[in-house]
Amino acid sequence: MAHGISPATPRVAKTLPFRPFSWLRPKYLLFGFIGMMLAYVLMHDESFLVNPKDPEWLHIQSFRWWLLPHGLAGACALLLGPMQFSDRLRQRYVKLHRIVGRIYIACVFIAAPLGPYIQHADERLGDARSFTIETMFQGGIWMLTTAIALAFILKGKVQQHRQWMTRSFGTGPLIFLEVRVIGGLTGWENLGPHVNEIIVWACTASSLLIADLVLQAEELYRIRSIRAKSQSNARLGERNMEVST
Description:
Elements: H1 26-44, H2 56-59, H3 64-80, H4 87-92, H5 94-121, H6 129-154, H7 158-171, H8 173-186, H9 193-244
Helix pairs in contact: 1-8, 3-5, 5-6, 6-7, 6-9, 7-9, 8-9
């Protein structure tokens, strides 16, 4: 066998996968903010749940058995909603994703109709009838956006389903948190039921706008990620050509 020097084999630059800063995605930042709001609300507004001597128990005495399913269903929707937007859960655990989605939808159609009845009971304590009307309006939007999301997924239109699920979460659990955080941090909650009603109306009126802003931010992130990935691949291709020559 002849022993010679083999021709040099051109080295090709390794193609590294493009990995943007996924933790900077708008939805992750939003859910981090929602987590902080939830922690604040639990400490500031819902601490009576672990204090049997809290005067809030007297306030809810007349409608407590209606508040129980309303609160449990609303809490489940609040906790399960963010799971619906997990790409990893949806891709790896399809069956679990569907089960969570069904539970969320059931919770919406339990919590939303009970809200107006409970608010109507508060009219005896001085709340205006317009506050009950607002609760009906907000609950109606929450159920409508959820029903549209359900209709889209039954037709196999996943992208539209995800968009309307975002609107559903924005018109339901997110309003619950926003109202209490705004009222608590500003001190407006101490100015009477009329001011609280204004806060609720404002959050309800802006809920769809906020949801669409989140959707637009997520879409801009997706487009920028695709553009950056294509540019990165193009640079790697040019580098490989230079090395091979």
